[in-house]
Give the backbone structure.
Amino acid sequence: MSRISFEEYAKQNVAKLVDYAVKRLYLDDYDVIYAQNLLLDALSLTEPYEGALKPYDIYETLDKLSDYAVRKKLIEEHEKLNFETKLMGMVMPSPSKTVDMFDDICAQKGVKAATDFLFKLSEDCTYLRRPDLDKNIVWEHESKRGNIVITVNLSKPEKTPEQVRLAKLATGGYPKCMLCAENLGWAGNAAKPARQTIRTIPIELDGESWFVQYSPYQYFDQHLIAVSREHRPMNMNAATFKRMAEFVQTFPHYFIGSNAPLPIVGGSILAHDHYQGGSKVLPVFKRGARRTFSMADRDAKISVVDWYNSVIRVEGSNLEDVLYVVNRFFENWLKYSDESQNIICKTAEGGEITQHNAVTPICSFNDDGEYQFNLILRNNRTDAEHPFGIFHPAQNLHNIKQEAIGIIEVMGLFILPGRLKREMDDIKDIICGKVPLDVNALSDETHPLHKHSGMIMQLALANSGALDEKKAQEAITGYINDACEQILDTTAVFKNTDEGQAAFDRFIKSVLE
């Protein structure tokens, strides 16, 4: 392709992007020339394409434009995605126009229609990269204590609890973190992705300025993040639960929840106060009660949820009473210890007190239109026998999941690291007999499957003789299913045994007295 024809091809792709923006991104006719000229300048092109356009795919169009920018030495190869985001940001509605459109739809058609608009815009502008998201491997595992959903995520790197801890301590830089309001329009760099296409909706929660945006990872349907406008560490107190109730008043079709503000049992970002929510599709919502309780003079139903970990559910239509009960359980759990169950709420070392008990709260409206809080009790203490956490997966499960078990996992949706896809394929070849089982090689820590050596030996012994590919895949999937169940069971501070549940009842009754 000659230099002239290559430039002409780039002009065609600029025209396609402008055409797409008119059809899908609300680009006004009056703004077309303006947007076109911004794109031409970004690509060092001198004039637009004047011919007819053939059918196109927007992701291919963007890829061709960033390829052109690389060939013309406008950007480096590793900058392609940030450059594509920059181009798309030039042709989509401004942040203020997006808010105005959201508010207009909300006033005319209701809040659900408005959030549907924002979600579709986030997809159409490629902020939510649907082709990448669709690569994730997803399946559902049926179990006696409730189905769980398992996802092998192919877009987000795995973080260790230590990396999460260090991230919480990190300060400085601009924006200070990936959740800050200052990400709006951010050009991106090697450490933080470009955010010219992100659009947020301002909201007020308990008199504070917050905003809502969709998560680029979309672990579940319409996965969103509610973010404090102030950059401050994750924290939990009575105001947290009030904000959550106000959030679902504004967005009754969504749930909202918060990670515990502690390492190991918290999320991957502890440096910025935020909540996560979205459609009420996570497995814990489908579970009923094992047993029920009540608190004198308070109009609220209290129950232990029939689930893997330790969940207290508080429901009722009287928000004042519901919040009172929720706060009672929260405050009492922070200072509750039961050494018979290995639960110690805080420890002191060198004159410094470390808090270990925490709560993962989730708020929504139930099917009867009542407020519902699910309080998942957590503890992040470690000891010599459990260096990674007494209620965190032990090392023998780290080949499947090493990251902190945060709000999404404890609700029944596992986000497993993308490395598992390649490793599962390699393990399948061994189980099928395509690749010889070399025990000595697997024992070498440098072997890429060393972390799975126990899994491979177990599957090989349980399935003597080579399996066909389908049965080998079923065996591997079954192993992962069992591991995820074990992980959820591990997070239960009160175990699913007669002794553990009796101890759970002792805690509940101590709060109700």
In short: The chain has a mean pLDDT of 93. The longest strand covers residues 357-365.
